[in-house]
Amino acid sequence: MEIVLAIAIGVLTGSGVWLILRPRTFQVIMGLSLLSYAVNLFIFSMGRLGLVINQAPVLVDGVAQDLHHYTDPLPQALVLTAIVIGFAMTALFLVVLLASRGTSGTDHVDGRHAHDAQEMP
């Protein structure tokens, strides 16, 4: 389970960095989203008992009240909060993308087309 999660985090991080380095604004936004998903998975996996299966999420009578018998709720709460914040930031980025495209007429990060950048010294 851990190796699959580590590979998923690595693939999401690599894809996110590659997309952030692209010249178009939409690709940068998608790269930021992939990086936020990778960070969410990383935070969830760093929970001490976040990957344990078949343990109760809430207190049960007759079971000792320590983290060896329950899942840790803190990483789950952090990831849930990060998902909500990430969704709001993606919506904000998309609005800024649309406004920038309407103002400049292009969706390149630097505001120029690729052929314009080659002509400039």
UniProtKB/TrEMBL annotation:
It comes from Comamonas faecalis. Keywords: Cell membrane, Membrane, Transmembrane, Transmembrane helix. It is a multi-pass membrane protein. The chain crosses the membrane at residues 6-22, 34-57, 77-99. It comes from the Bacteria. Belongs to the CPA3 antiporters (TC 2.A.63) subunit C family. It is found in: Cell membrane. NCBIfam families: PRK09094.1. This is Na+/H+ antiporter subunit C.
